[in-house]
Design goal:
about 110 residues, mainly alpha
């Protein structure tokens, strides 16, 4: 009895596989497998891309933070240089005035 049931199931499956509907079902099953594999491959790519984006974001955040620090340091150096330039300009003006006075004194002394 079990053997007859097995043969009947086998024949029905064989006939279904040979029929157009059976072929369609078979094709759909094979497509399902390939779609699942493609989905896994795409999921892996998405994960890799996401990780790359997170790393790039962290790198850019660090570069921005470093650049802001550099800007602050350079701004301080510029201010200091401006102060030194103003002091040097003032010193030059004082020296020029002193030299003019000394030249006037020298001319007055030579005229005597």
């Amino acid at each position: 009895m079990a053997m007859k049931w097995f043969l009947a199931t086998f024949l029905v499956a064989f006939v279904d596989a040979a029929s157009p509907v059976g072929r369609v079902v078979s094709l759909l099953e094979s497509m399902e497998g390939s779609i699942v594999e493609e989905g896994k491959a795409e999921e892996k790519k998405i994960t890799e891309y996401s990780n790359m984006c997170e790393k790039r974001t962290a790198d850019l955040e660090y570069q921005i933070k470093t650049a802001k620090t550099d800007i602050d340091e350079l701004s301080a150096r510029i201010s200091k240089a401006d102060s030194k330039a103003e002091a040097a300009t003032s010193s030059i003006q004082e020296t020029q005035q002193s030299m003019a006075a000394d030249e006037a004194d020298l001319k007055a002394a030579n005229d005597v």
